[in-house]
Amino acid sequence: MHWSAFRLPFAAAALALATAAAADDFHGFDPAKFDGEMLSAATLKAAVADAAKVTPPKNGKNYVFAFANLDRGITFCNKVESGIKADAGAAGIELDIADNHLDGATALANAESFVNRNVDYVIEFQTDANFGATIMQKMDDAKIKVTAIDIPMGNATFFGVNNPRAGYMGGSYLAQAAIAKWGADKVKQGYFIEGELPQSGAIPKMRTDAQIAGFLAAVPDFPADHVLKFDSKNTLEESFTQTNNLIGRIPTGVPIMGTAINDQATTGILRAVKQAGRDVIVVGLGADELDTLMNEPNFVASVGSFPERYGNYLIPLALSQLAGKPIPPAVLVHHVMITKANVHDYYPDIKSANEKTIDYKFPQDEFAKYLVSLKKDPELKDFQNLIPTN
Asked: What is the pLDDT of residues 75-92, one digit of tens each?
């Protein structure tokens, strides 16, 4: 795959929410303007050299970074890991990798291992919000700087999904696709299934809440008791099981619409409803399960997060911080809707299908009002830098 093919789709590929000083351009990396294309090995090594002048490697030879992955059984996480390995390898950075297995206690044990190894930097991808403070206390005590992926952790730099926008995109696309398929009147008779992830706290909840809000923006009089929510635990298997438990509550003959915290949980909804012989469409989040998107007619779209490019941001972010450069407290991914018809525009190795898609319109006015409500939410008062301005 040639990254140059992504330059136009990825213009302004990350949104840096700078409540602190504006970030510097460090060897071609400015988080507010970076297009997501991997820096050259020579550039990355030059960045390492400059960072080492300010923060020398602890072992006196080379940087050792640690990456704690969310779960290697999840496609999205594997793509994130592959990207980090590619960038670290090109930069000459030794990488210590652990698997958090979707478990807070395991994440804490991995963090303690990183501290004991005296690593230079940690990239943390862990799901249990209850363990974040403890993990960060250990990192702070050891004077190890951290970037946290998707789940905020204390004073760690945040990198990840723009939860309100990504969720609102997915929910509103699902509603508009459902209306195009069944008509507005029949959609109002249907049921909306949402796969949540409560263990990860308020920030991923912004994603799943926004999926519901985006859906309701297109179907404002949808019955409240037709919105069915469950704890997906971030996995296809749990989503499949929980959806099976819900199907009995849904009358026969009505449409079912589903989405969830990620592509895997969305796929669990799809498989359970199809197995029951019911009529369904789903929209995913992440666009990391592209085979499912392309081969399942009822999986109509996914919100692209481009996990394979995370490393292109994460390694330069870490080096910028080690070099003493000002960086924003949060860098959010730029999202686009990926469909069977446009997938080739973003993934040139995959041929787009000659398939008609809806004329999707993002409900910007409704979204702007939704953001105002988030800003006023007391549960989010400590996370204002993770709420976009538009």
From this structure: 999 999 999 999 999 999
